[in-house]
Write a structure and sequence with these properties.
Keywords: Membrane, Transmembrane, Transmembrane helix. The chain has 143 residues and is an all-alpha fold. The chain has helices spanning 3-36, 49-58, 61-80, 84-110, 115-123, 125-134. It has one domain.
Length: 143
């Protein structure tokens, strides 16, 4: 193995370790947020179920199903072909994005924050989730 290959593999390994570490940190932040909202922390580990749980304590579960089904249908329609189906898929994905922004706003409000924190959750989500999880903020319920 030449030195370039070894350097490339070392770099990829370092990035992989950093990504795994960051993911674990995010799960811990979600765990803390769930515990603040009187939900079992283990739900933070399970993909999709963690999002369902977040919608449950910040908004409602019907919104989760709209986002999930809309994301699947919109994604399929976008890839189908050009024309009306593709345009419809794009429109559905735009609606899903709006629902996700509303969900971030509801999460911020459930912990007593306003629009500024919502903007932070949108643009710097991992950092603001850590702030939400490890700060002294208390869960005040859906707003």
């Amino acid at each position: 193995m030449n030195s370039f290959t070894a350097l490339l593999l070392a770099g990829l390994g370092t990035v992989f370790i950093l990504v795994i570490g960051w993911y674990i940190l995010q799960v811990v932040a979600y765990w803390k947020i769930f515990e603040k909202a009187n939900e079992p922390g283990w739900k933070a580990i399970v993909p999709f179920y963690n999002t369902y749980t977040q919608y449950k304590f910040t908004w409602n579960t019907q919104a989760f199903w709209i986002v999930l089904i809309g994301g699947i249908v919109g994604g399929i329609l976008q890839e189908a072909t050009e024309g009306i189906p593709s345009l419809l898929g794009t429109l559905i994905m735009l609606i899903v994005a709006i629902f996700n922004i509303i969900s971030l706003n509801k999460l911020a409000k459930a912990f007593g924050h306003g629009v500024g924190f919502t903007i932070g959750l949108f643009f710097l989500n991992p950092i603001f989730m850590l702030i939400l999880g490890f700060s002294g903020d208390e869960y005040i319920g859906p707003q």
